[in-house]
Design a protein that fits this description.
By secondary structure, the protein is mainly alpha-helical. It has one domain: Four Helix Bundle (Hemerythrin (Met), subunit A), CATH 1.20.120. It is built from five helices and two strands. A two-stranded antiparallel sheet has the order 1-2. The mean pLDDT is 95.
Length: 152
Protein backbone atom coordinates (compact mmCIF):
# COMPACT_ATOMS: atom_id res chain seq x y z
CA UNK A 1 0.00 0.00 0.00
CA UNK A 2 1.55 3.30 -1.09
CA UNK A 3 2.03 5.99 1.53
CA UNK A 4 4.25 8.96 2.35
CA UNK A 5 5.62 6.75 5.12
CA UNK A 6 7.69 4.95 2.44
CA UNK A 7 10.58 7.04 1.03
CA UNK A 8 10.27 5.42 -2.40
CA UNK A 9 6.59 6.36 -2.64
CA UNK A 10 7.38 9.98 -1.77
CA UNK A 11 10.21 10.01 -4.34
CA UNK A 12 7.80 8.72 -7.01
CA UNK A 13 5.38 11.58 -6.29
CA UNK A 14 8.20 14.15 -6.38
CA UNK A 15 9.40 12.80 -9.74
CA UNK A 16 5.88 13.05 -11.18
CA UNK A 17 5.37 16.50 -9.67
CA UNK A 18 8.58 17.79 -11.25
CA UNK A 19 7.35 16.68 -14.71
CA UNK A 20 4.23 18.81 -14.34
CA UNK A 21 4.16 21.99 -16.43
CA UNK A 22 2.04 25.14 -15.98
CA UNK A 23 0.30 24.33 -19.28
CA UNK A 24 -0.27 20.62 -18.55
CA UNK A 25 -3.75 19.71 -19.78
CA UNK A 26 -6.27 18.43 -17.26
CA UNK A 27 -8.20 15.23 -17.94
CA UNK A 28 -11.05 16.19 -15.60
CA UNK A 29 -12.11 18.97 -13.25
CA UNK A 30 -11.74 22.71 -13.54
CA UNK A 31 -8.38 23.46 -11.90
CA UNK A 32 -5.33 24.45 -13.92
CA UNK A 33 -2.10 22.59 -13.17
CA UNK A 34 -0.91 25.56 -11.12
CA UNK A 35 -4.15 25.75 -9.14
CA UNK A 36 -3.85 22.02 -8.47
CA UNK A 37 -0.36 22.44 -7.01
CA UNK A 38 -1.66 25.20 -4.73
CA UNK A 39 -4.59 22.94 -3.76
CA UNK A 40 -2.13 20.21 -2.80
CA UNK A 41 -0.12 22.75 -0.78
CA UNK A 42 -3.20 23.98 1.06
CA UNK A 43 -4.27 20.39 1.75
CA UNK A 44 -0.93 19.46 3.30
CA UNK A 45 -1.07 22.63 5.40
CA UNK A 46 -4.38 21.29 6.67
CA UNK A 47 -2.70 17.99 7.59
CA UNK A 48 0.02 19.77 9.57
CA UNK A 49 -2.46 22.04 11.35
CA UNK A 50 -1.22 25.20 9.61
CA UNK A 51 -4.48 25.82 7.72
CA UNK A 52 -7.98 25.76 9.17
CA UNK A 53 -10.66 24.18 7.01
CA UNK A 54 -14.40 23.91 7.58
CA UNK A 55 -15.73 20.43 8.23
CA UNK A 56 -18.36 18.38 6.41
CA UNK A 57 -18.00 15.21 8.47
CA UNK A 58 -20.84 12.71 8.43
CA UNK A 59 -21.13 9.26 9.95
CA UNK A 60 -20.71 7.56 6.52
CA UNK A 61 -17.76 9.80 5.52
CA UNK A 62 -15.82 9.17 8.75
CA UNK A 63 -16.40 5.43 8.70
CA UNK A 64 -17.29 3.59 5.50
CA UNK A 65 -16.20 6.19 2.92
CA UNK A 66 -12.90 6.84 4.72
CA UNK A 67 -12.12 3.12 4.83
CA UNK A 68 -13.01 2.65 1.15
CA UNK A 69 -11.02 5.72 0.06
CA UNK A 70 -7.90 4.84 2.05
CA UNK A 71 -7.71 1.07 1.94
CA UNK A 72 -9.50 -0.40 -1.07
CA UNK A 73 -7.43 -0.57 -4.27
CA UNK A 74 -9.76 1.78 -6.15
CA UNK A 75 -8.97 5.05 -7.85
CA UNK A 76 -10.77 8.00 -6.36
CA UNK A 77 -13.74 9.25 -8.37
CA UNK A 78 -13.53 12.57 -10.18
CA UNK A 79 -15.82 15.53 -9.64
CA UNK A 80 -15.96 15.50 -5.83
CA UNK A 81 -16.13 19.07 -4.53
CA UNK A 82 -13.51 20.20 -2.04
CA UNK A 83 -13.81 22.52 0.94
CA UNK A 84 -13.76 26.26 0.09
CA UNK A 85 -10.54 26.88 2.05
CA UNK A 86 -8.60 24.56 -0.26
CA UNK A 87 -10.47 25.52 -3.46
CA UNK A 88 -8.34 27.93 -5.47
CA UNK A 89 -11.47 29.48 -7.02
CA UNK A 90 -12.87 30.21 -3.56
CA UNK A 91 -10.68 30.83 -0.48
CA UNK A 92 -7.66 28.69 -1.38
CA UNK A 93 -4.18 30.10 -1.97
CA UNK A 94 -3.91 31.83 -5.32
CA UNK A 95 -1.17 30.63 -7.69
CA UNK A 96 1.83 32.93 -7.96
CA UNK A 97 5.11 31.41 -9.15
CA UNK A 98 4.69 27.89 -10.55
CA UNK A 99 8.17 26.52 -9.77
CA UNK A 100 8.12 28.06 -6.28
CA UNK A 101 4.72 26.48 -5.61
CA UNK A 102 5.98 23.09 -6.84
CA UNK A 103 9.04 23.42 -4.57
CA UNK A 104 6.70 24.27 -1.69
CA UNK A 105 4.75 21.07 -2.36
CA UNK A 106 7.95 19.04 -2.16
CA UNK A 107 8.88 20.78 1.10
CA UNK A 108 5.41 20.24 2.56
CA UNK A 109 5.53 16.52 1.74
CA UNK A 110 8.80 16.36 3.65
CA UNK A 111 7.28 18.37 6.50
CA UNK A 112 4.34 15.97 6.78
CA UNK A 113 6.79 13.08 6.96
CA UNK A 114 8.82 14.94 9.62
CA UNK A 115 5.63 15.46 11.65
CA UNK A 116 5.36 11.73 12.29
CA UNK A 117 4.32 11.31 15.88
CA UNK A 118 2.28 14.53 15.75
CA UNK A 119 -0.27 13.67 13.05
CA UNK A 120 -2.24 11.18 15.16
CA UNK A 121 -5.71 12.46 15.89
CA UNK A 122 -5.66 15.44 13.53
CA UNK A 123 -9.09 16.02 11.99
CA UNK A 124 -9.66 15.71 8.24
CA UNK A 125 -12.56 17.90 7.01
CA UNK A 126 -14.43 14.95 5.47
CA UNK A 127 -13.01 11.81 7.11
CA UNK A 128 -12.83 13.16 10.66
CA UNK A 129 -10.14 12.20 13.17
CA UNK A 130 -7.43 10.12 11.49
CA UNK A 131 -4.46 8.10 12.63
CA UNK A 132 -0.95 8.98 11.51
CA UNK A 133 -1.00 5.95 9.22
CA UNK A 134 -4.24 7.20 7.64
CA UNK A 135 -2.85 10.74 7.16
CA UNK A 136 0.26 9.46 5.41
CA UNK A 137 -1.84 7.16 3.20
CA UNK A 138 -4.28 9.99 2.43
CA UNK A 139 -1.41 12.37 1.54
CA UNK A 140 -0.07 9.87 -1.00
CA UNK A 141 -3.49 9.10 -2.50
CA UNK A 142 -4.58 12.74 -2.68
CA UNK A 143 -1.38 13.77 -4.46
CA UNK A 144 -1.53 10.76 -6.78
CA UNK A 145 -5.16 11.53 -7.65
CA UNK A 146 -4.38 15.10 -8.68
CA UNK A 147 -1.20 14.23 -10.55
CA UNK A 148 -3.22 11.71 -12.60
CA UNK A 149 -5.66 14.55 -13.25
CA UNK A 150 -2.88 16.08 -15.35
CA UNK A 151 -1.52 12.88 -16.87
CA UNK A 152 1.32 12.44 -14.38
Amino acid sequence: MKTLAHPGDKDELVHRLRRLQPDSVRHWGRMSAHQMVCHLNDSLLLATGQRAVSHAITLPSRTIIKWIALYLPLRWPTGILTRPEVDQEARGTRPSDFRADVARQEALMQEVIAQRGKLRGAVHPIFGRMSERAWLRWAYLHTDHHLRQFGE
